[in-house]
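Posting this for the archive.
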Amino acid sequence: MRSFLRFLPHVFIVVLLLSLAACNRGPGASGVQVQIKNVQIGLKPGPIPTNEDTLRRAPLFKAGHWTPVFVEIEGKGKLENAELVVEVIDADDVLNTYRRQLEVIEFSAENPTYSFVTYARPGKIDSPINVYLRNKQGQNLCPANEQTPYGQEASSYLYVTLGTRLAGLRLPGGDDRNNSRAEVAAIDNVSELPTKWFGYNTADLVILTTGRKEFVSGLLDDEAKRTALLEWVRRGGKLVISVGENQQELTRQSLETFLPVEFAGLATPERIGIFWDSVPGMEEPIVKGAKSTLTVAKMKPKAGRNVRTPVKLGREETPLVAQASYGLGRVTLVGFDLDKGPFVGWKGEKPFWEKLLKESGPAFATQAPAQDDMFTRSGQTVDSEEIQLQLQRGLESYDGVPIISFGWIALFILLYILVVGPLDYFFLKKVVKRLELTWVTFPLVVIIVSAAAYFTAYAIKGDDQKINKLDLIDIDMHTRTAQGTTWFSIFSPRIQNYTVGVEPKEGWGVKKEATIQPQVSWLGTVRKGRQSLFRRSYDYTDDASGLLRVPIQVWSTKGFQASWQGPLEDRVDPIRSELSQADAALTGRLTSNLPVSLQDVHIFHRGKAYKVGTLLPKESKVLTNINSLPADQWIDASAVSYGGYPSARQGPVIADPEPARAFIKSVMFNETRERKQGKSLGKNGGLRELDQSWRLRPEDAGEQAVLVGRVDLASGDAEDILGKPSTVTKLWLGALPGSNAARPKLLGTMRQETYVRVYLPVTTRK
């Protein structure tokens, strides 16, 4: 008996180990062995003029933006019901996961590895990113891959080349590599192309060369990859396409509505001169070489596409460079190959690249933020004028919810320390004369102070859920599509997990059933700093169309951003226009079919802002002899503000009822505003896809005008506000659209701000 008892602990340990092995055998049960062989977060770096060794540069991505994550797995056997899980933290230091379901994989001696593309949106510059391979029960099939990559700041610039690696590409500000805010990444393998439109979100400008026919064919033949690129452009992306010898690859039916030009064959001149705004360094022509043919694609602008042609072939009308819009995005076509001779090696190659990138992409910031624009808080440096920070502050300002200043908090902490320390000791020693009673008084003081703090906060902050929401809808009458962008913040009166989704609201002329899946994510200011020890987590749905179980602490706020895109209904135009230009004046008629009145309506055309005033539903306005002023003057005009933001230094103040008035012009036209102010700071890093400044130039082709207006503020009961026509995007909390569940009623109160931009056709008359 004693012998048995002596071995009993060993038997227990063996049984425990066998139980653990049985619980974790997951993949072994099906006979598959698998491991994550390699993970690349971001895009491979491209060559730069200094011939820096690309193998010594880490993959590139911008913090706060979606970025591709390339995963290579290796194994033996058959892998079923598995998923790739990418875990990262957002700007509030909350863990979130994006999942990709994997199809059945058969590993073999011929195919021992498989590669996949998934996605992540890091909330910090130095955000840790973990990649897991799990089965449907949530068990890890192999050790996780853990990395802490260092991303670029949101205000930096990332140019991405597709196809040939462009060794001669010269970036803006690229002469000083130590101070440059720009980088170049390269995708030269079709398998690395994103299959989701937000996979390009990290890029400020994409350059597609067509010199490699197999690459172009691989991109355009793959519907998912082609659709991802075109959808990214339609949502505000900027794309350059160089086309020469392989012109026929772009004549596909799938690109008919996308391209702003028609191709009319090829030309093979002996030389071409590039005259683009008298840029120095391009005086010498591109000359046909002994081993390289100079091939030019003949392009003819399509009528009504508002095509700008800044460079033409000699005295001919054939454009060498053509630019036009596609949705919110911009397409620039260059009529010769940028990845072949004789352009490669031309003396004007570098200044041409610099001019092309500046004219086709976002305006490059040449100034660093001034020191007096910066403030430091908790070891984090934040630019106080960053537009996204202003937006976030505006959404987090709730009337009736004051912010307690740090001075008061520090005072209460000091009083608490005095009570539980010296005062408690003095009372027990001098008055009661029984120090052992501290076992009673100490927990009693803690309970009383905690209860007092809770009920004080309850009295100050209340028990109502509050939502602040800002909608911007862009309606493009050429592509007959609408895009809604919404930002909102939720103030939670209790600890609660939120499921968050959005969809377009009825009444704005959008085909709801044909809407492309929305994209929903967190809103916050990207920074570098310490990470919290205590983290909660939430999940993205497939395609990031919603968020599941987002934790918000009691009396705390969390910001979100979302977008959707869909076609317009055929029966009616939201804004019907008959605009024309003659003798530098804009005239015509406007008729609104929107469900709400538009206030402060202006029409922008060729560098001018025409004041329309109020546009009522079903109202038709004739535009003749209307007042105008330079567009940049209207954009730079200061918004009329009311009250101010709650400030930790000022104590509670009345929240601005319409905070978007202070920054919405910068969201829509920041480059124009900075140009007017003589600055070039690029403070719209997280919002560049919404900046339409390039449409307002005086040298614009003139076949398009931009109408801008706002809807009256709506505030009150959240469910009532959501039902009003002033709401463009319908918010779901507690369930997701398309889940066969009824939308839960919104609780509490909501403040709704709405702004509208409409892109209208214009007939030009000489």
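The chain is about 20% helix and 35% strand. The chain has a mean pLDDT of 84.
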